[in-house]
From TrEMBL:
Residues 1-31 are annotated as: Disordered. The keyword Transmembrane applies. It comes from the Bacteria. The chain crosses the membrane at residues 91-109. Keywords: Membrane, Transmembrane, Transmembrane helix. This is MFS transporter.
Length: 132
């Protein structure tokens, strides 16, 4: 099979197990929130800390790669690394208490085993008792 052909539906996702066709709603719904908070913090910090001459040497501040950062002067590198660090810290400071609250709530949830059969006769008998 060459690169232009598509894989059969049964094997299409076997190449990328970390990117399934459907993901849980909790995973996909929190990523934009955390990412947008980080991105807005980072944009503000870079605009505040980056001198004009250093900003001119960086073509696009939204697409930093390790190679690009390593190719910049040390002063600009430290500004970028510090801004990333300072932009990510508030995200973790908000997520840690949220995770602690989630753990406390989960402690009080009792596990209930899944039903292994459907007992309609028992349910019908209960309804008859309740109706009488």
């Amino acid at each position: 099979m060459n690169e232009t052909e598509t894989a059969p539906a049964a094997t299409r996702w076997s190449k990328y197990p970390r990117d399934p066709p459907a993901q849980p709603a909790t995973k996909t719904s929190r990523q934009p929130v955390v990412g947008s908070v980080f991105a807005s913090n980072l944009a503000g910090l870079l605009a505040e800390r980056m001198p004009a001459e250093a900003a001119a040497s960086v073509a696009d501040t939204s697409s930093f790669t390790p190679e690009l950062v390593h190719s910049l002067p040390d002063a600009v590198q430290s500004i970028i690394v510090g801004a990333h660090n300072d932009a990510l810290t508030p995200v973790y400071l908000w997520l840690a208490p949220l995770a602690a609250v989630a753990v406390v709530v989960l402690v009080f949830i009792r596990p209930k085993p899944l039903a292994t059969s459907i007992d309609r006769a028992v349910k019908d008998a209960r309804k008859l008792k309740e109706a009488a």
